Amino acid sequence: MTLFLTLVIAAIVLGIIGAVADGLLYLLVMGIVVFVAALVHLALHWRRSARRPPR
Fold it and tell me: For 30-37, which contacts have Cβ atoms below 8 Å and span 24 or more sequence positions?
């Protein structure tokens, strides 16, 4: 969960810098890519934990 939160914070920071700074649109795109990667990581983590039988 810590990795997910770190990726989301990094995506937000990159997105804000990319949207505000002139000529740094690629940072906004990188922020979006990092955010999507964080969502994929979270989905895989939930899927993996859902398969374990309860103890």
Answer: 34/7, 34/10, 35/7, 35/8, 35/11, 37/7
